[in-house]
Each structure stands twice: as structure tokens, then as C-alpha cells.
Amino acid sequence: MADSTVVSDQQPPGSGQTTPSRGPYIAGITNRNTNLGIRGFMLFSIGVFLALVLNLLQVQRNVTLFPPDVISSIFSSAWWVPPCCGTASAMIGLLYPCIDSRLGEPHKFKREWSSVMRCVAVFVGINHASAKVDFANNVQLSLTLAALSIGLWWTFDRSRSGFGLGVVIALLATLSTQLLVYNGVFQYTSPDFLYIRSWLPCIFFAGVITMGNIGRQLALYECKRMSGKTHQD
Prior knowledge:
By secondary structure, this protein is an all-alpha fold. Helix content is about 65%, strand content about 0%. It has helices at about 30-60, 80-105, 115-130, 140-155, 160-180, 200-230; strands at about 65, 185-190.
């Protein structure tokens, strides 16, 4: 009699009932869509932080000049620069794993956080070199940064989709910067490529590869956690 009243909370295999998927970051309360938002917010925050640090280097060396009335006394940057860079970082970081999934080519090269941190360090070093290292002329600087940027892709990415997206987004970012400078939003000292510096596309390319790697790693972490939860269920 007692055995007939036992109720099990576990559902038998093949019952056709599914539970809502949970996200890995706040596993008890988040679903897939909310988890995507959390991933985007993390990428946005990283982009804002890098923009503040790297733009400070450019402003201190008088590579980038903003009008005095838009400069923040704390960060030495226009207020709109960090949010724009954060938004772009979130879009890039979410786009890379999405493109990998669409192409059916999951990125598996150096998929660990230590490699991602080294990629970030190299990117910061490339940006630092553009502002601090003195070269004989802009051509030498541009060629050096181009080689370093391609080397960053080869060392930490090596995917065709990563290279293609990096080039396309770097060109779009360069065009957008040209338009901003043309309209007097800010300016570069000693421009040698229309209104900007010729090495700027190299910085954009390295930044895209870096944020793409961070986005891929976050997506991989999510997949691993969700796969582990599925096996446990």
C-alpha cells in the first residue's frame, strides 16, 4: 500500500516533457535569452574598460585630439567613446560564435582563458606601441603594426571567418572614423591617410580579433556548462 503512494519527481526518459534551459552564469534563474544578455553585458563592460585605458594612451601622447569642451577631466576622453566601443565590442563578441555556428566550423584553436588573456595583453601592447614607440616615419609604423596584428590573428585565431570578419569590421570602423574626423568631432595629429593615421585599421583589426576571442570563449563556457547540466539531468 505504501509503495503505491510513492511519487517520484524524476520524469522517465522519453516522456516528451522538457525543462526550460538554464544559463551557466546565474544557473538557478536564467534561461538562454537572459544568458545571452549577460554575455553581451560582460563584453560591453570589457569594451568600455579597454576603451578608457587605450584611448587615454592616445590622448596623453597627443595622437588623438578632442575639443576641450567634450573632454572628461577623469578619463581624458569624450563621453561617447567608451559606450560606442562597448557596444561594438558586444556586437563583435556575440557575432563571432554565431558566424562559427552558421558556417559549421566551431573554433577550437587555443580555447582556454589563458590564451585569451595573452591575446588581450598583445592587443594592449600593439596599441601602446602605436602611441609610445617612435619610428622614423608613419610607413614603418604602419607596416610594423600590420605585421603585429596579423601575427596576433595567426597566434590566437587562425580561422578564415575570424580573418574575414576582422578585415571587414576594421574597414567599416576606419570609414566611420574618417567621417567623424571629417565632421570635426575629433582629429588626429599628423594624419597621413586622408583624415586619420594610416596604422588605425591595424588597431581596429587587432581589436576585433581580441573581442572575437573573448566572445568565443564566453560562448564555449556557456556550451560546456549547459552540456554538463543536460548530462546531469
